[in-house]
Design goal:
Layout: E1 2-7, H1 14-27, E2 31-35, H2 44-50, E3 55-59, E4 68-72, E5 76-83, E6 87-94, E7 99-106, H3 114-125, E8 132-137, E9 147-148, H4 155-168, E10 170-172, E11 182-183, E12 193-194, E13 197-202, H5 203-208, E14 213-217, E15 226-230, H6 257-267, H7 274-312, H8 319-343, H9 349-352, H10 357-366
Parallel strand pairs: 1-2, 7-8
Antiparallel strand pairs: 1-15, 2-4, 3-4, 5-6, 6-7, 8-13, 9-12, 10-13, 11-12, 14-15
Pfam family, one: Exo_endo_phos
Organism: Gossypium darwinii
Protein name: Endonuclease/exonuclease/phosphatase domain-containing protein
């Protein structure tokens, strides 16, 4: 089971919803928890639909602050137990029989109110009957190694956080990549980075899912990174077949000048019959399509690494500027990736304005019927 948590800092902006869809496609979570949505709950049915998720429970924002949402995909059953402005408590089960107790958590930011967050976790613990996972933005750190820059946190606040973990027998799962999950995006010595977002698991979960892991997922729209938990994260999985170079003629290539040039050059040749020319087109267009998509993925991966270097590396002059530039560029490449898949789908949805990437990806890559070249004009 995969659980995706993100303090998205608002989903009013269509670009944030677009990026959320991209992140869901790339990471394929079963359950999604969002905090600081900053919208009324009645705005979430549309977001759920656009992200092609099955279910949703949303908690109203308080004006332009707060707001939570729990969403889940087809094949997952979620029984919401309780919720407030700071948590959503649920029993989650999948078709393969996996059952967990998941609490999406948003900690109080005000130091004088943090005890309310810990009291809420105590109440939830008293009702838990399965393996327990708590994930989200805790607005707290366990020690000052979870912080870089700015004033040191008070020992009392960190002690209280550690004490509640000990009391409730919760284990902090360290990410396999990255470390800091939040930054204030300020320049130079004023830049502060902290590990505020995390997953905690009960001891029985730790022994039941021995391969469980979490990782940080880079994004471009919020000052918080995404965190992702996978209950079988380190377990070896069968590698899927690589169909990158499988050739299927795509009608949209007729709009691509590079593809048209390849076809024209081959078709204008004088020394080959039609079948040979068709085979030559196949051999050149397949790798061309692969290289085109690969270039896009290389750029996305490079920008994600740039963000990771700034978030996890030492603070230096220009760090915030590099972070902002990389996130802006990453957002643009995510948009290009969505358009790439949208272009490959023979469907009227794009004309209707719903550019759902997951749908496009499934349609573009999941067809059983193979396209082929019958003739070229």
């Amino acid at each position: 089971m995969k659980i995706f948590c993100w303090n998205c800092r608002g989903v009013r902006n269509p670009a944030t919803v677009c990026e959320l869809k991209q992140l869901l496609v790339a990471n394929a979570p079963d359950v999604v928890f969002l905090c600081e949505t900053k919208i009324h709950s009645n705005g979430f049915p549309r977001i759920r639909s656009r992200c092609r998720l099955k279910g949703c429970l949303a908690v109203n924002s308080d004006g332009k602050s707060g707001g939570l949402a729990l969403l889940w995909r087809e094949g997952v059953t979620v029984d919401v137990q309780n919720f407030s402005n700071y948590h959503i408590d649920s029993l989650v089960s999948t078709q393969d029989g996996e059952v967990i107790w998941f609490t999406g958590f948003y900690g109080q930011a005000d130091q004088t109110s943090k005890h309310l967050s810990w009291d809420m976790l105590r109440r939830v613990k008293s009702t838990v009957k399965e393996g327990w996972i708590v994930g989200g933005d805790f607005n707290a750190i366990l020690n000052n190694t979870k912080k870089d820059g700015g004033r040191r946190k008070s020992r009392r606040s960190m002690d209280e956080f550690r004490d509640i973990l000990d009391e409730l027998a919760l284990i902090d799962v360290k990410p396999t990549n990255g470390w800091f999950t939040w930054s204030n995006n300020r320049e130079g010595p004023n830049l502060v980075k902290e590990r505020l977002d995390r997953f905690l698991i009960s001891e029985d979960m730790f022994f039941k899912f021995t391969f469980i892991n979490t990782r940080v997922v880079r994004q471009s729209k919020s000052d918080h990174e995404v965190i992702l938990l996978n209950t079988i994260g380190n377990k070896s999985e069968e590698e899927s077949c690589n169909h990158s170079l499988r050739f299927r003629y795509d009608a949209c290539w007729a709009k691509e000048q590079e593809a048209r040039d390849i076809i024209k050059r081959i078709w204008d040749g004088k020394n080959s019959d039609m079948l040979t020319k068709m085979d030559m087109v196949r051999k050149e267009l397949g790798p061309w399509q692969y290289r085109r998509y690969k270039r896009m993925k290389i750029e996305i991966n490079k920008l994600e690494k740039n963000i990771g270097k700034v978030m996890d590396g030492p603070i230096s002059v220009g760090s915030s500027r590099v972070l902002k530039k990389s996130r802006d560029q990453l957002g643009k490449w995510y948009d290009k990736e969505e358009k790439y898949w949208a272009q490959r789908v023979r469907n009227q949805w794009l004309r209707e304005g719903d550019r759902n990437t997951r749908y496009f990806h499934m349609q573009a890559t999941g067809r059983k019927k193979k396209n082929s070249i019958d003739k070229l004009k």
